[in-house]
Each structure stands twice: as C-alpha cells, then as structure tokens.
Amino acid sequence: MGGLPIKPEINMEVALPPRMIQFSIAPAHQPSRTPAERNRRTIYTYRGRGQADPMLEILNLPNPNESCEVRDSAAVTPQAFTLMNSDVMTDRSIAFALRVQKECRDDTAKQIRRAVQLAYGRFPAANEQEHLESYVSEMLVYHNTHKPEEVEYPKQVVRSLVEEFTGEPFEFIELLNVYDDYVPDSKPWTVSADTRAMADVCLLLLNSNELMYVY
Length: 215
Prior knowledge:
Blueprint: H1 12-15, E1 19-21, E2 24-26, H2 35-38, H3 54-58, H4 77-85, H5 87-103, H6 108-120, H7 126-145, E3 156-162, E4 169-175, H8 193-206, H9 209-214
Antiparallel strand pairs: 1-2, 3-4
C-alpha cells in the first residue's frame, strides 16, 4: 500500500503525440521503468488532466476536472474491443499464463484448472475443462505457425513547432530516456507458443461474463 504515483504503459498513439500546454508542448508520457513500479492499482496512478489513460477512459473514467461521488455505469461496444484486443490485456493475459505455467509445470490440464480457480474462485466443470483443453490445443497449432512481430520502444520523438514571432517552422528532438534501461512486461515475441496459447485461454477467462459481472 502507498508509495509514489506510478505511470502505466498506455497506447503509444496517445502517449507520443504533442499536447499544447501553456504556449508550449507537454512532454510525452513515459511509463514507470519496471513492472513492479507500474503494474499497480489505478488508485496509485498519476493523473494528468490533459492526457487520460485511454484504457481507463473507455471504462468510464470520471472527468478529472470535477468531483465525482458516483462513477458512471455504461456498457458500450468499444469496451469489449478494448478488453479483447488491447496491448494492456495481452500483457495481463501473458502474465496470467506465465503464473499458472510456473505453478503447474508441464501439465496443461492442471494449468487450465488453476487458471479457472484464480479467475472464478472455483474449479471448472468437466465440460468446461474439456472445452478449454480443446481450445488451448487449437491455439497451440496456430501459434506454432504464426510468430508475432517484435515491436520496439521508441528512444526519441521529433517535435515540430512554429516560431511565435517569425512564423518559421522548426523541429527538435525529445528524448524518451526511460526506454534506455526499460524493463518491459513479457510480450508475445518474448514467450513461447505454449505460453501464447495458454494466454489465449486466460484472455477468454478475463472476458467471460462470470468474471465481468460476478467478480
């Protein structure tokens, strides 16, 4: 509990574009350096009014310019797309998969059983176990033939401005120093096909009605 505010990873299309602030440009969003620092509850997240976390914004983040005693409740299509397809959910699914693989080594059936227990607080029924084992086998075939493309973190970004008095355009480079010694979360291209297949099962569990509406 407690500690300094942290900065999570957010979508690069939101993190890097220039934002005007007080007749200048605000710096790009740079996440906290290590997973232990940045992967915490959102209550510990640093909030900038001019740059909302798109993951939280799509999930009804209150307006930071106003007090909010009750959070809006809305279920819209972009939420489902975000929870199925975003980089955040991919990272969390891989982390989930790595945990169950560590706890139940070399036993896919036990890994699935443990994943359901962690997600739902119960063990899977026989038909659920069967379907999930079939699904992970199917996804393993897919991942053995489809290697994910590696994505590199940027080390700098070029900014373009116009000189206030002359109107002449000019550019400067903003260094993203955090990425010099950044410790990323496990990514699809850093884990095995087995882990990616199990992560697909974990992603399914995280998006199920039972977890969304009960827990």
